[in-house]
Amino acid sequence: MKKALVLGASGGMGYALVHELVARGIETVAFARTREKLEKLFGHMEQVTIISGDVYQVEDVKEAGRGVEVIFHTVSVPYHEWEKGHPTIMRNVVEAAAANCSKIVLIDNIYAYGRGNGQPITEEYPKRPHTKKGNIRLQIDHMAKDAHRQGIPALIVHFPDFYGPNATNTLLSYTLESMVAGKKAAFVGNQNVKREYIFTPDGAKATVELALREDAYGQNWNIPGYGVISGREIISIVKEITGYSRKVGTIGRGMITLAGLFSRMMWEVREMMYLTEEPVVLSGAKYEKHIGPLPKTSYEEGIRQTLSFMKGVRT
Questions:
Q1: Which phi and psi angles does 134 have, rounded to 5°?
Q2: What is the pLDDT of residues 103-116, one digit of tens each?
Q3: pLDDT greater at residue 138 or residue 259
Q4: Which of the 8 DSSP states describes residue 215?
Q5: Domains of the chain in sequence order
Q6: Is the whole-model pTM more than 0.85?
Q7: How would you label 137-167 residue by residue, b for 16+ Cβ within 10 Å and e otherwise?
Q8: Which parts of the sequence belong to the NAD-dependent epimerase/dehydratase domain (predicted)?
Q9: Which of 70, 71, 17 minimizes the C-alpha distance to 41?
């Protein structure tokens, strides 16, 4: 791979992918809606071409994809826009890949798997989503697989919740940002339940490694985090690093439901709260068997780097 396009480059995984691609000497096109933000994030990087545009406009995506070998689709959409937004964007990605003879790497989450069974989920686990957003993600997965069958190489990478430098708009970032700022903080979900998070630079390393291998296409790949960790353990790590001494509250399903009566966005969060109560944990056995050891940064180090980035943004 000599040149790649990262759609949604200003987001958490997009940001990590741009840095990983550049670190491997790959010319990279960073695409997002806001040029100012792209300039702030990547303006100092010689191997990065910045293109601002609208991912809902297929011609913008096609133009950004000229001459690239792989299109990394990392675009996030506000929950209340998922139903129309995600299928439209995926159609544009497929059309752009077809026009430019590019491959597709789809960054996906765990929603399509639905409820877990208490064991690490492999790629063979049946996708039986029970939520609206899970069904939308399954629809996008099918679109990627259809594209592959039609001759456009595509692979799908499933991740747990993100955290890492520039990974904002996540449930965990809500807690971390408040603690870094010394403000009143709260953790979304039961603090005693152990859940899984992926450090975005680790996810980017694994994803690029897959994208470089021809035999990885046409498949789903699960990329787990550094084991499971409880909210209390995360809060303890953050307090140790920052000196934060205030009590961190809990935001449960009831509070989310109440807030949802006044906010469409919070109402959409409500149906995904099951993941904070019955976590879905991924198995990385397939990756380790066919590719090699998974990149795994400890939560202590990953949180330290994440907080350091947050502090830099604030100052």
A1: -65, -40
A2: 999 999 999 999 99
A3: 138
A4: G
A5: 3-165+197-225+281-296 (3.40.50.720)
A6: yes
A7: bbebbebbbebbeeebbbbbbbbbbbbbbbb
A8: 4-223
A9: 17
